[in-house]
Design a protein that fits this description.
It contains 10 helices and 2 strands; from the N terminus they run ααααββαααααα. Helix 5 crosses helix 6. The protein has one domain. The protein has a two-stranded antiparallel ribbon with strand order 1-2. It is globular and about 60 Å long. By secondary structure, it is mainly alpha-helical.
Length: 304
């Protein structure tokens, strides 16, 4: 029971990270129809800005502001200079251009921050652990990450469902051409949607910095998983991003804990280790394949 609860909590923390990254990416892909391979780069920018801010000030609050605004401002510059010129281009152009942004960002971050950023310690307010079951303590930092993911999910729901901006975002996800024909400045809407996605990436970066290694290329490692999330949940849907994040995060966490145990009972030791390692790595892709067989547009797609 302890292992099940602990892995479930780890899955929720990983789901929170995936949601922060996939919520913006699914809107960029669904509304703007842009395949953005550089999305993870803004996550890296946020983490490096946070590491540098902590080293300079010692304040985690300042690090949050530095990460969010650093990633957001850089995202706004990238959108104005590059992404805005890709809206009516083919997807191959999107892939090539955003791949170039990815490589450029890696080089720029190395030049500005160095290849080895300062270590980000867990803030004192989130240090230690708390009991969640008798005999089971769980780190406060991971609980704070889960709580931050819940707050962002609620904020995104209020923004998308209860505001005029959200109405335009939902309409743009359904039919961007009709929205533009009705007199909405679709370019400005695209700009703010893209910037919102990068702000969420920056926040994900600062929350992950005390838990994961801050390094060049850290965004590329999680980008593929983020695309899996939006395919499972449905392109263009924030609710789909939430559902997909929970499914992928829990599948990954529980699979890492239980697949090796199951394989050790089913197969001889010389085969179980290699097969269980392969199944753990492939578990989220197996999930994606099953979802696509049942619902090709994802579980909660934007209504088109």
């Amino acid at each position: 029971m302890h292992m099940l609860v602990e892995q479930a909590m780890n899955g929720l923390q990983y789901s929170a990270l995936l949601f922060l990254l996939s919520a913006g990416l699914t809107l960029i892909f669904g509304i703007m129809n842009v395949v953005n391979l550089a999305h993870g780069s803004f996550y890296m920018v946020g983490a490096f800005c946070a590491a540098s801010a902590v080293a300079a000030t010692g304040s985690f609050g300042v690090a949050v502001l530095a990460a969010v605004f650093g990633a957001g401002i850089y995202g706004l510059i990238v959108e104005r200079l590059v992404i805005s010129r890709l809206y009516h281009r083919e997807h191959l152009d999107h892939v090539l251009a955003t791949l170039g942004i990815l490589l450029f960002t890696d080089a720029l971050v190395t030049l500005v921050f160095g290849r080895s950023p300062p270590f980000v310690a867990i803030p004192q307010i989130f240090a230690g652990s708390v009991p969640i079951l008798p005999g089971l303590n769980y780190p406060v930092m991971r609980l704070a990450f889960i709580g931050a993911g819940v707050l962002v999910a609620i904020g995104m729901w209020l923004l998308i469902s209860k505001t005029k901006v959200g109405m335009l975002v939902r309409a743009g996800a359904d039919d961007a051409e009709t929205v533009e024909a009705l007199g909405v400045n679709i370019r400005r809407l695209f700009m703010w949607v893209f910037t919102l996605g990068t702000l969420l990436c920056g926040f994900a970066g600062v929350m992950a910095a005390p838990l994961l290694a801050v390094e060049i290329g850290m965004g590329e490692k999680i980008l593929i998983t983020t695309f899996v999330v939006i395919v499972v949940g449905g392109v263009g849907s924030v609710r789909g991003a939430l559902v997909g994040s929970l499914l992928v995060g829990m599948t990954d966490a529980l699979g890492r804990a239980y697949i090796p145990i199951w394989m050790s009972h089913m197969l001889p030791p010389q085969y179980s280790d290699s097969i269980s390692t392969s199944l753990v790595s492939a578990s989220i892709y197996i999930l994606m394949a099953i979802v696509l067989l049942v619902k090709p547009r994802g579980l909660v797609p934007a209504q088109r």
